[in-house]
Amino acid sequence: MARLRLYWLAARLFDSYLLLARPHSHGALVAIWHQGRLLLVQTSYRRGLGLPGGGLERRETARQAAVRELAEELGLRVSPEELVDPWQITETSARGKNSVTIFTLRAAHEPTIQLDGLELMAGYWLTTQEALGRPLVNHVREYLMERG
Prior knowledge:
This protein is an alpha+beta fold. The protein is about 30% helix and about 35% strand. Strands 1, 2, 3, 4, 5 and 6 form a 6-stranded mixed sheet that branches.
């Protein structure tokens, strides 16, 4: 429980930094689809369901970041070639600009995922319609409206 509080505090501090610095951040996410259902995750630091993924590290492409994040967050190992149909969006808010690339992973079998309970608290396999009826982060809602 103490680790979760520390993680929450770090997330709040980072939010404060974003409000002050207003940087342009870049992220890579993965929409994992299996039999018409999408894996959505609940993080410990954000309201609304989102997709697994995260920020790009220095000199890392969006595809490389997506592969790394799947391994880190879900224990899921994929090859870069499995990530297809990149979709991009840039959002502007009080926290700055955020450019996100969302890749698609079509899973023949439901992948076994391992949530860390620290960053990712829960995972849900939902149809597009089920997902749109839930609270979602903005870029996921946009993705589903256009691509889902």
